[in-house]
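2024-03-11 09:14:02 INFO worker-7 job=invfold-0412 stage=load source=structure_tokens
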């Protein structure tokens, strides 16, 4: 036993440390089942250590086993020896959010140290946490063909996607994704604002709005912007992928990157421009370098897309046209 600030604290045994270290090596190799057996053994050896249950909760988070993550997380926080700021509470908040256990999610975020409002009215059902935390970037499919898109943070664990993801991601505009708590990278916008990049854990709420790919003929940037504005006015989105997407290596993607420098082309993952109006992103080709043919993503119901495009052309038929419309996600 050791004493820290007057509190007695149990020192874990060498056997506990060996089992835990080996378990995290196995987690790094994706061998979750074998790691789980070791972490369960460690918890049996030292059930009074919050770390035993935190580690199990972390493993269950990696496996997306949210019921087990919540159960282990509750045991971890019950054994904490500090009042606020412990990552145990953050992971418990993620598990509670995944399960839509809003009372527990509020309790977890508050215990971590965040100011979280209660239900909308006294004695009302406890609905989703809504903190309106501003813009953030989220890395879709972080273990695969990753793509960083922009979105709106609804709470500490959820982002609503406001970019139009490329079809390879399998994600759509308007979807809500559950994300991890530790950022992997940052994006710096032209005004100097810095935004974290969070890794997606899983899809939390799907979007019914399909994604279309269309080839535009837009004589000027203003012509392209007009389509994006038409889509936004209709409550949906259009995005000029020809200028809003750049390719980055993983190392670059996970570092601090400026959103207005698209001159370097690496490979994997894709990366979207800066936040704001979903269509008005950076990396624009302009002036003498403007190329009229553009690949554009449109997020809108199938019955609306043709009307949007035809209306866009009708407003300036001499400078606008479209072809090869295809639903891609």
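2024-03-11 09:14:09 INFO worker-7 stage=emit residues=329
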């Amino acid at each position: 036993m050791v004493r820290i600030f007057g509190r007695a604290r149990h020192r874990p045994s060498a056997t506990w440390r060996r089992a835990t270290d080996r378990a995290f090596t196995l987690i790094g190799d994706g061998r979750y089942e074998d790691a789980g057996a070791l972490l369960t053994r460690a918890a049996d050896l030292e059930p009074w250590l919050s770390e035993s249950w935190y580690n199990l909760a972390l493993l269950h988070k990696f496996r997306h086993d949210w019921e087990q993550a919540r159960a282990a997380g509750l045991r971890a926080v019950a054994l904490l020896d500090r009042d606020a700021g412990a990552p145990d509470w953050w992971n418990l908040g993620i598990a509670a959010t995944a399960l839509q256990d809003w009372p527990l999610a509020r309790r977890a975020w508050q215990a971590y140290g965040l100011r979280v409002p209660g239900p909308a009215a006294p004695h009302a059902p406890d609905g989703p946490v809504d903190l309106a935390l501003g813009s953030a970037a989220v890395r879709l499919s972080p273990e695969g063909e990753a793509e960083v898109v922009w979105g709106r943070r609804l709470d500490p664990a959820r982002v609503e996607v406001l970019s139009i993801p490329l079809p390879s991601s399998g994600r759509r505009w308007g979807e809500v994704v559950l994300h991890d708590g530790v950022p992997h990278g940052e994006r710096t916008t032209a005004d100097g604002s810095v935004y974290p990049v969070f890794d997606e854990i899983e899809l939390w709420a799907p979007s019914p709005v399909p994604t279309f790919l269309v080839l535009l003929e837009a004589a000027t940037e203003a012509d392209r912007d007009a389509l994006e504005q038409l889509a936004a006015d209709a409550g949906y989105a259009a995005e000029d992928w020809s200028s809003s997407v750049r390719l980055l290596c993983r190392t670059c993607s996970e570092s601090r990157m400026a959103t207005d420098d698209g001159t370097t082309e690496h490979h994997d993952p894709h990366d979207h421009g800066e936040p704001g109006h979903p269509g008005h992103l950076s990396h624009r080709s302009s002036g003498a370098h403007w190329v009229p043919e553009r690949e554009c993503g449109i997020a809108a119901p199938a019955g609306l897309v043709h009307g949007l495009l035809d209306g866009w052309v009708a407003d300036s038929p001499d400078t606008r046209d479209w072809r090869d419309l295809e639903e891609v996600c």
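2024-03-11 09:14:09 INFO worker-7 stage=report msg="The chain has a mean pLDDT of 85."
2024-03-11 09:14:10 INFO worker-7 job finished
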